[in-house]
Design a protein that fits this description.
six-stranded mixed beta sheet, single chain, alpha+beta, 28 strands
């Protein structure tokens, strides 16, 4: 079966340029692969090692950086796009904040941001590829955790630029793993990708149907990985994380190592394993499927070599996972296949999804979701809005991310202002707001006033990304508070409707108040005060009742105003 063909803008299948590589920029290890002579090769260094430790110390990168007495900078990927408040979790090195509000890490020679650190890793991998291929390497597909937000993805692209690489595409690590297993080759069905790396965990539910490879759902934790298993063991034995990692790896093939057994290690880390399975359950639920529908499970990341992971994953999904591709290499292999496809014309349509809903603030502090969570990307959606005040000439657009119903419960991404709106009565202008998420998961928001064509847009590039566990916490909070959130939204919508009635009534009384008798005016004032008092409370039914009561009290006034308006229109005209 032939799959849908997609072509990157400006690329042609007629002329093949130098090789584009696939790079797995990992938390613990990184590696580079390439498709050469129709076969995928994971490229090794001069010592025959394909894995490059994601470590930097002074001018050294990789294994060389790990040889000194001082602790090398490691696991810095966790800080891609993050702010200074999370830097204190990296206890082994000195940190400071720079003028852009980003944490910097000291390596006894200079200060490096997470972008600088990643650029060093990418530069070494680029050089390795150029040495092996004998040609200049300038293009790459780079993988990122599915739960990397806009800031972290932008940071990854910035690191690639500093390393002299043009990013053809950022693809999610689970998607790359699926490509590596050839799940796109006439193998229709639903698949689960369980990716436990050094610092992050993701699980994605993928569907291969009718030539379209789509991510049905994704869930994860950017602060859960092999490093956490090391830390738990280190705390138990009062040793360094590096020593703990060596023991953990030895326990993969041995029941007992030094003074600890595999059983004891599994007991120490059972809560971490349970966290991954809870996230698996969430992803399956979000996909709207039953676990029995999943055709295969793919394991990704060196941490999945732990026997307890294989065992618990098999128990959860009811079948053993695939393990024919090295879990350390599977992501890089998939990235290389995608890089090759983009270089000469892809035969696979990849549809990743947005991890959290995207929307904007509307009157009353409510959130209007434009692009829902788990929407396939690239995606673009538009919705029309209008003004709430007479003569309003500008509109502030507040872009938000999250699943809750009120603004203060979601994450603020950006503000911008559309100016030049023609002065009109409230609700007459038509403002079209468009949200566009590209193939890399980056967001652009634009607004256009349709009568004048006046436009304004912003590329959402927050200074830093989500805080530790924020994505997981946001999703969990949305589930736990769903019923209360809907009640709060309905309450606030009722308040907004009541306020519109009060505003319209104030304008009507100013224009035609002489049509009211003293008794009518007094009754209206009484009902207005009662409604305003109810609006300060939380009883929606009372607000709705008093709003309808005020509306009914004003009915005669409204009819008299209409009669006056009609009379004015008919003056001097024959009927």
């Amino acid at each position: 079966m032939m799959l849908l063909d997609i072509q990157e803008p400006g690329q042609s299948t007629k002329q093949r340029r130098n090789h584009a590589v696939g790079i797995d920029l990992g938390t613990t290890h990184s590696l580079v692969a390439v498709v050469r002579d129709d076969a995928v090769e994971v490229l090794a260094d001069e010592a025959g090692r394909v894995l490059l430790p994601s470590a930097v110390w002074k001018d050294k990168v990789g294994y060389d950086a790990l040889g000194g007495e001082c602790p090398a900078l490691t696991s810095i990927k966790r800080f891609m796009g993050k702010n200074i408040h999370e830097a204190d979790t990296h206890k082994d090195v000195i940190t400071r904040i720079n003028t852009q509000g980003l944490p910097e890490f000291h390596n006894e020679k200079e200060w490096l941001t997470a972008v600088d650190f990643s650029a060093r890793i990418l530069s070494v991998l680029k050089a390795r590829a150029e040495e092996e291929l004998g040609e200049k390497v300038t293009e790459a597909v780079i993988t990122v955790p599915a739960y990397f937000d806009d800031a972290a993805r932008i940071a990854t692209k910035d690191a690639a630029t500093k390393a002299g690489l043009c990013v053809l595409r950022l693809i999610n690590e689970p998607t790359a793993a699926a490509l590596a297993y050839g799940l796109d080759n006439d193998a229709e069905g639903i698949y689960a990708i369980y990716d436990l790396g050094g610092g992050t965990f993701d699980v994605s539910i993928l569907s291969m149907q009718k030539g379209v490879f789509q991510v049905l759902s994704t869930a994860g934790d950017t602060q859960l990985g092999g490093d956490d298993f090391d830390a738990a063991l280190a705390a138990e034995l009062n040793i360094s994380n590096r020593e703990a990692r060596a023991i953990k790896e030895a326990l993969t093939d041995n029941e007992n190592v030094k003074n600890i057994s595999r059983t004891k290690f599994e007991e120490i880390t059972q809560a971490l394993v349970a966290r991954t399975l809870t996230i698996c359950k969430q992803a399956v639920s979000d996909a709207g499927i039953d676990k029995k529908e999943i055709r295969e499970i793919v394991l990704v990341g060196g941490s999945t070599r732990m026997p307890i992971i294989n065992q618990k994953v098999a128990e959860f999904f009811g079948k053993a996972a695939l393990d024919t591709v090295d879990p350390d290499q599977v992501v890089a292999v998939g990235a290389a296949l995608q890089a090759d496809a983009l270089s000469r014309g892809s035969d696979t349509l990849l549809l990743d999804v947005t991890p959290l809903s995207l929307g904007l603030e509307t009157y009353g502090g409510l959130v209007e979701k434009i692009i829902a969570r788990n929407t396939p990307i690239p995606a673009a959606k538009s919705q029309e809005f209008t003004t709430y005040a007479d003569g309003q000439s500008a509109m502030k657009i507040h872009v938000l991310q999250g699943e809750r119903e009120l603004v203060d419960q979601c994450r603020s991404l950006a503000f911008f202002e559309l100016t030049g709106i023609p002065p009109m009565p409230a609700a007459l202008p038509r403002i079209k707001v468009t949200f566009a998420v590209d193939a890399d998961g980056l967001l652009t928001v634009g607004a256009e006033e349709l009568t004048t064509g006046k436009k304004q847009e912003v590329a959402v590039k927050p200074t830093y990304g989500l805080k530790e566990g924020e994505v997981e916490a946001m999703l969990k909070a949305s589930y736990e508070n769903a019923r209360d959130d809907i009640s709060l939204r309905l309450l606030q919508e009722t308040r907004v409707e009541a306020q519109f009635l009060l505003d319209d009534l104030a304008k009507a009384m100013k224009a035609d108040g002489d049509l009211l008798s003293n008794a009518e005016r007094e009754e209206i004032e009484v009902q207005k005060i009662a409604l305003q008092s109810a609006m300060a409370g939380d009883d929606r039914d009372t607000i709705l009742l008093l709003k309808n009561t005020l509306d009914a009290v004003c009915q005669n006034f409204a009819e008299n105003r209409m009669n006056r308006a009609i009379g004015k229109e008919l003056v001097g005209k024959a009927i």
